[in-house]
Design a protein that fits this description.
- By secondary structure, the chain is an all-alpha fold.
- It is built from 3 helices and no strands.
Length: 134
């Protein structure tokens, strides 16, 4: 007689094997009785419900997309105002000294001089060498 705990254990004594056999029997019975009118009606109702939910989801998606497109100009206007405020604050910083030296700022050229360029973290001038001046 084989060991009851070994790999060659009799599958008919295994509770999982019994459960699997019962599932198979139920599945076979369900297939033979699956042609009933009630089963077909349930399937039709499930597909109608699924289709209805898909249409509702598409309508909600379309509404949210159109709402987003409609609100885009308002958001753009708000961002434009915020950028103008930041530029005004930066202009005050340039005139009154730097408040935040550690932060990286993009600075626009001053209106008075033409040799200044837009630079990062301060103003730099390009000086020509003696050889380049000739």
């Amino acid at each position: 007689m084989p060991d009851s705990q070994g790999p060659h254990r009799d599958p008919r004594r295994n509770p999982a094997w019994h459960a699997a056999q019962q599932w198979q029997q139920r599945a076979r019975q369900g297939r033979s009785q699956g042609n009933s009118l009630l089963g077909s009606l349930k399937m039709l109702l499930a597909w109608l419900l699924f289709g209805t939910l898909m249409m509702v989801a598409m309508v909600f998606g379309l509404i949210f997309m159109l709402l987003g497109w409609a609100l885009m100009p308002l958001l753009r206007h708000r961002m434009k105002k915020r950028m103008e405020q930041m530029r005004a604050d930066r202009a005050e910083d340039v005139d009154g000294g730097f408040r935040h030296r550690r932060e990286t700022h993009y600075r626009e050229p001053h209106a008075g001089s033409s040799h200044e360029q837009q630079v990062l973290e301060g103003d730099y001038e390009v000086k020509k060498n003696k050889e380049q001046k000739r």
